[in-house]
Write a structure and sequence with these properties.
The protein is mostly helical. It has one domain. The protein has 9 helices and 6 strands; from the N terminus they run E-E-H-E-E-H-H-H-H-E-H-H-E-H-H. It has a two-stranded antiparallel ribbon. Strands 3-4 form a two-stranded antiparallel ribbon. It has a two-stranded parallel ribbon with strand order 5-6.
């Protein structure tokens, strides 16, 4: 998947391969059930967490004045692009700081090249570190679930630059909607290598069913409480 381009309509296509738009999803057989569950749970959760989200929004702005939310284009079902929302956890000039860090710190550069993550990321604000550790930064993604860009359960949404890491397995990623939680989250999250993450996404895509989704949702609760693999 070295040569990747956007196909018509915002989907991704590999040169010489079928556009992602034509990947047939195993999800379709249970889509009405999973979609109904997504709408019901995300609607209730948004109402329940609204007061907390308002407090978080105020803290994000007070600690580092600027945008409260961070929206980044990710790839979803059938390779379609969508804007994935989070509470902003990084400083305003995060990209500039990352470029400077990777240019001057070989250890950080090697860590970033391995997993696209930094355990001690200097770009993260004080409130942002707490939000990431507690996974509260992802609460705005309930809106993504409600409008249908994401599901409660699925692979974590990836950016365009990560497609190459999936290689021929990108088609499996495209078969399901990305999720707020999934096999990766209950299997160690950031403590899991990227290669293992891809394997978990493929396993989920090929095994997706309602019972699996419910199992992952229930197993997510203790993982979030104990913040395993979150940073």
């Amino acid at each position: 998947m070295a040569n990747v381009a956007f196909s018509k309509g915002g989907s991704l296509a590999s040169r010489g391969a079928k556009p992602a738009l034509f990947y047939r999803s195993r999800e379709r057989g249970i889509l009405p059930v999973t979609r109904a569950l997504d709408i019901l749970v995300s609607s209730i959760a948004l109402l329940f967490f609204l007061p907390l989200m308002m407090v978080i929004a105020a803290l994000v702005y007070v600690v580092d004045p600027g945008p409260i939310f961070f929206g980044q284009f990710r790839l979803g079902h059938e390779g379609r692009r969508f804007r994935c929302w989070k509470f902003r956890t990084m400083v305003i000039d995060a990209e500039t700081r990352l470029t400077e860090l990777l240019a001057t710190d070989p250890a950080a550069r090697a860590e970033w090249a391995k997993d696209c993550k930094l355990r001690n990321d200097p770009r993260i604000t004080s409130i942002g570190r707490f939000l990431r550790k507690s996974s509260l930064d992802e609460l705005p993604q309930l809106l993504n679930v409600l409008i249908g860009d994401m599901s409660l359960v699925g692979p974590r949404p990836i950016v365009h630059a990560e497609v190459e890491r999936y290689g021929r397995y990108f088609k499996d990623y495209c078969k399901v909607r990305p999720g707020i939680t999934g096999l990766w989250q209950i299997s160690g999250r950031n403590d899991v290598s990227y290669r293992r993450r891809v394997a978990l996404d493929v396993k989920y895509s090929r095994s997706k069913c309602l019972s699996l989704d419910l199992t992952i949702l229930f197993m997510t609760i203790p993982r979030v409480i104990f913040a395993r693999g979150s940073y």
